[in-house]
Amino acid sequence: MKLKSRILALGASALMALSAPVFAEDWAPDGPLTIQIGFGAGGSTDTMGRVLGKVMKDNTGWNVVVENKPGGGGVAMFTGLSQMPPNRNIVGMGVSIPVLVQLVNRGDQLPFDVDSFDYLGTVAKAELALVASKDAPFDTLEEMVAHAKEQGTLAVATMAPPQVLVMKQTEAKTGASFNLVTADGGAEVMKLILGGQVLAGFGSGEQYPYLESGDMKVIAGANQSRLSYAPDVKTFTESGVPAYVDPVFFLAMTGGTDPEAIKAISAAIDEAITAPEFVEIVRNAVKGDPINMGVEGTKQMMVDGLANAKVLFGK
Amino acid sequence: MGGDHVVSADRISGIFFLLLGLAMYFVVNPAHIEAVEGGSLNPKTVPDIISLILALCGGLLVLKPTTHQVANLQNILRTAGYSLLLVAGLFAMSRFGFEYVAPLLAFAIMWFIGERRPFWLAFGAVGMPALIWFLVTQALGRALP
Amino acid sequence: MVDYATILAGFGDAFTPFNLMFVLFGVLLGQFVGAVPGIGPIMAMAIAIPFTFGLDPLPAIAFLVGVNKGGLVGGAVPAILMNTPGTPDAAATALDGHPLAKQGKPLKATKMALFSSVTGDLFSDIVLITVSAPLAIMALKMGPIEVVALMIFAFSILAGLIGNSLIKGIIAAALGLLVASVGQDPEHYTPRLIFGYWDLFDGLPLPSVAIGMLAISEILRRMSLAHGNVKSGIITDGSQTPEDRRVSWAEYWACRYTMLRGATIGTILGALPGIGSTAAAFMSYAMTKAGSKDPTSFGKGNLQGIAASESANSAVVGANLIPLLTLGIPGSVGAALIISAFMIHGMQPGPLLFEQQGRLVYGLFGAMLMANFVNLWVGQLGLRFWTKVVSAPESIIFSAALLLCIVGVSMATSGLFGVAIMLIFAIVGYLMSTFGYSLVIFIIAFFLGPRFEKSIAQSLALTNGDLTQMLKSPVAVALLVLSVVSFVYFLRKNAQAAALETKM
Fold first, then answer.
1. pLDDT tens profile A220-250
2. Chains with at least 3 CB pairs less than 8 angstroms from chain B
3. Which of A179, A211, C174, C411 could bridge to A155 as Cys pair (CB 3.0-4.6 Å)?
4. What is the CATH architecture of A129-221?
């Protein structure tokens, strides 16, 4: 009887080892696994992070806790993460660009650099577009520049430093002049465009409903490659302004974390981002599908991103 | 209450705000606000204007104080005592965690207020922290400080 | 346009027992959690969102709407019963609510708050349901220049709250603006006055400052007074008549113009993103006081004061959904949380929402209307419960409130750092009130400061640094003229009051 049950148990565990993904057997957090989000409650990073946490919890059975640690576009959260001893089972979720911008501009004031973390993977890429009201008398970046020259100046709404630099680069390359109005996030950019206070502005997702309704049109893509939802629209680079911004939503842990933990958690993330409810939230938030660059790819993305940010900021 | 004492309350706070405004304008703002070029509104402009307004109004208050009276000194000292207790409690919480510090802190506060009834002391020092612990960690699944 | 069949189907969905149950749950949770010191309505929403993950869209949103509206009613409870508002908009309610509660009429005070809150809320909901589209278009026309003028107007009305010393009022406002300038500057994104603490890059955490200044400083003051003499949190001797425990129809009806004005102010400010309920509550309060035949009775337990503040701050919340649903623009933190809940449930707020999800939107409207009535009903019971709670000894109330504020702020911000800031502002607040500076003015300036500076920066960018272009906008000019009028009016009134005081 005893023997029989042991054989059965053995058989069952062998079966499990064959069928279950590799991570299930090796490593599990002792206590909760915390995902710290580098932004406040209610934004797209927060929304995606909360769904990711839930899916991971459902898939793995781990107690995944999601917290908000806002401040400096994730810099406050990554500062905290870098100062922690490793293996505290705390995962940081942030967006690459705000962190890279502060590293380039104020690296000497920050206690961390790109190498301070062990990267787990990415979940999505934000597509940044320059959009304008449907009534704007231009359809492309070239036409917009021409219109600005004709008028003397043109008001454009921005919501983050790299966008300001992209516009400054446009001024430098074309000789046009823009009045740059800084807004609190994409929603306010949309409000300024719809209200007619500015003619064009940057959106990282907030513009979709207006593109769909026909109230707005895309003038240019600000990523390295063309926008997935508007493949006919040229990028800034293609229009003769060599500047682009590629914000990626990524996850990382304190450097020096147990490789087994990295393996297990990154596998859990990789599994979670294919879940239908996660795919849906990503499509709602960034209009694209989830993208995971993997452990190595994420690190490479940050290293390359830093180099690109240095070029953009002229450092 | 003598007239001199009454006047001095506004004079004290007036001098404080005069010095604060000047210190912000001449020392803190230049050191802790980055210089930028171009743009419409310099990061320093608004804090500088406000600092000057603060200094100016502080100075005016010294010259023309109102008849405001400060509550008695004993109460202020007691408040300082409670504040120190909270600071100590917070510091202890950062080292040992809410679970261990909260009962002691609650007990100390109740004791200083003058509570001596065992039932209420026990309820405040054991019951409330336990209830908070249960609600936050068990019902909401959040972490305590 | 949405056809009637969709509207009816949507309302029909809302009134199924299953969805009503979620409205009820939400209101219960919101009223309870919103009333706990240190937690408050926004925190109640943030806590509730994860619970909706597994639900269908309508019950999930009905639940959140319930939490949101319940939280509004709950938020007034600590302000009135203990003078420890958890949010700055409730501070306006405390001005008259707490004195009335101290007179032994806590139920009357809280019930007046409940009735005027539900009235204001209902008003803005009806505006939302009927004329949200044109209102949203009007709100869009309020560009940065008009917003600057509007905020100057708001500040000028707040001059009515300054009291007898203009200088000290200006100092309190300047200090609030200075503290508000901590964090990222509005145009160049540079870290400003953060002293190496990147947690401050987005500004001082609002819950820390508000709860520290308004609630903890008051608890500190009361603890020093209670020394050695443990009383109940609120004393109701046996002399209360039944009239002291309820609000009569005549009393409610006497506040009808006050509530209408409050609800209108709240609805207008709520439709404009980013100004918020604090300004609305205090503007309504100051205007009611200015228009009253007996302004000296304010601050001493006048029902009109409670009605003014609660009708306005509750109206903001319904009106916040106007830019949210029609344009996808959140007007406040609470609204941003609702957007994120929408997105989790596959709804994309914006111009096509009514067309694509009309049934769901009208379901939401139905749930909002129902939530108002549930609020009224649950509130009647809840308020009795809370007045019982605060009749416990002060010792336990204060120690429990302090622990709850510590836990609440640490959850709402990012841990003990936010709690430490709360404590610093508690001490600042205590010293300010000891030396006779208005905390309310400080808090309003602190909340409006960042938006004000941002709008100025935007206006400067739009006008090439030439602010005289403001004069080209008729709306801005009208608001500026009104500002001058109200400023002069209030200053003269203050001077008269001060002269009267010295004579006595």
1. 999 999 999 999 999 999 999 999 999 999 9
2. A, C
3. A179
4. 3-Layer(aba) Sandwich (3.40)
